[in-house]
Design goal:
Elements (H helix, E strand, L loop, with lengths): L6 H9 L6 H21 L1 H18 L4 H4 L2 H13 L7 H7 L4 H31 L2 H32 L23 H18 L8 H21 L3 H7 L30 H5 L4 H18 L6 H20 L20 H18 L3 H28 L6 H5 L7 H9 L1 H4 L3 H25 L15 H19 L2 H8 L2 H4 E5 L5 E5 L2 E2 L13 E2 L1 H25 L9 H25 L7 H20 L16 H31 L21 H4 L10
Antiparallel strand pairs: 1-2, 3-4
Length: about 700
Amino acid sequence: MITTEPPYLSAVRAQRPPARRLSTWLLVGLSLSVGWGIRGNFGHEYGAAFAGCLAALTVSLLSGRDDWRERVLYFGFYGAIGWGFGGSMSYMQMISATESGQAASQWYGYVALYYIGFLWAALGAAGTAFAAVAERPALVKLFKPILFVFGAWLLLDLIEDPVAQALQDGASFDHTWARHKSPLYWFDADYLAAFFALLGVGVYDLTESRGLYRWILPIYAGAGALGGWLIQWLLRLTGLENRLAALLTYPLGDPAYLDPATGQRAFGPDDFLNNWPQWFGDYPGHVGWVVGLVLGLTAWFVQFGRFRNGSSLIVYMASGWLLSFLAFPVLGSLFFREAGGLRMTPPRADDWAGITGVFLGMMLWMRRNRYLPVALASVMAGTIGGLGFSGVQWLKQLLMAPGNPRIPAAQGFGPGDEVYDRTLIDWAAWQGQNWHSFLEQTYGFVNGLSVAVAMAMLASRLPIQRDAGPRKGRWTLGFAAFFLLLAIPYVNLVKNVKEWGDHLNPDVWKRVAEQADGSTQSLPALWDIPYLGHLPGGHWLSLTPEGWFNLTWLLITAVFVVVIRRHLREPLALIPETWLGKGQLVFLILLWLMVIGNFERALVGWTPTRLLTEWGIFLNASVATVLVLLAPRRKENSVVMRSTEPLEPLYGRACRRAMAAGILSGVLFLVTNRMIYRYPADSRTDRAKYFTRFGPEANWRARPNLKNATHK
């Protein structure tokens, strides 16, 4: 029996564009929530890129716009890059500060969480919106300079440790608790990634240049290096070098801090790190020519660089990273030494400053290149994301209030009192839940809403883009698919190998190697190649567990390349014909590959508290699977221009609301939190458990990073 939809339902459906449907917002939120829960296990930029990629894919698929669905792979690609930037920022100290009980540090923690959340969502939404706003040729052309940047980052991964070892032979640094002992360490920040991004885009610009000017680049570089060396030589000759160095240097800590237990100075004056890279102190005679070399290269590119095909966006963002980093923690802190400098989470990373520069550089480029819709979407999403980070932490604290021992303690009860002991016993299971996972997955959901809201605004305001002319750059579709389905999973899942090696049978996963000094060291096992590795004399045919993982992934990559090349020549029956079907396939493969990989990571160290994370991720992924298959309709006829209001006034209002939201929300969260917990006025914060930014026992004073201690 064929029925028709009632007219009133058709009218209601037409009034609500697909991008504004509840199912759309729910799916985008769930996608980022699942990704954020998994990101919490894998961490940093790669985990955030996966989460942002899932959300961007769903925005495209549920937009109801054929032009956006045709770009679904570009949405995933640029969305992943945009969300990845925020993964470098440190934030756990700010979460701890909101729980410290010290009013100033609590307010600071809420405001800082808002700021971090704003930057994270703003850049993630900018990447997603750029895929929607830019014309297709612009999206395609930007791939090539991005590949040069990826190549530069790969080179950095290969040479960073060998260079550090060469600069300081025998240094016992690593990438965890001894990373500050590396001569390349600088505020625990990713400055080398920003520098190598400029290097990569510079090489790209040289390959695009056809003039003779590129042949004078060595002259600029040599002149800069010589000039830097001469200036340093003159400073040394006149006795000004040491004075200038002292003027521009400050210790990352408080030399006057007194140990409360002894009343004596807790640290020696030579124990502290300072605000410059380690190698500046190890090789002071080389600072001048190295800085001069960099400035000489910069001068050439400023004068002759063209940075076509959108590569100037990379220049704006990477230069913004470095300039903002210099402006805040490095040089700006010189004027705020007594307050610990212009540092957000000392003694942890100051990548927040660099990401601030990335955001400002991106916004400036978007405004200058008439991509105001991207800038508007960025600010809108950033505001929601900022409120999400600080607000979900506030909500978590409200939910943890029942049975929290700090509340009866504030009323004067302590261990041994019936009220205090009964509270701990009755609510122990509630307090022992994995509340941090609740924070991550809920915050991820709000981040998804931030993108959904911003992109819904654009979906009903941007005209449909019809790509005219022949389709050039089809290879970018293949690369985007490779990036989403193989590159993002690899950089995350390869971390599982270490988890397996640390938790599974050591007789299988580890080997003991004797060092030259007679000591022993635990190393990854060597697994022989089947059959060939067991022939007489064939034991050299072996790989470490990570080596086997990499080999397997290379084989999968080879299969992928063969299949995609064939598909571009002659479509395969397995791959859907519509972009909606292709996007759904990519989403489901990526989603469940990472869900299963995440479970494999958690299983070797399983505890019941992992249910909130892994079971919650599985449940949300299941709901997302149903929604991504059922919610989008193949034909949507309700995408119409809803408003022709100029975007400039909207952008101004969005910026003002973003600033007001950060200020007012911090006050609201602080006041309500303290009304519930009623921290005693004379309480002393447990500095070993909670982070404080202010006061005589602030962490930057009492627990700084020291040269010969583990990293905090």
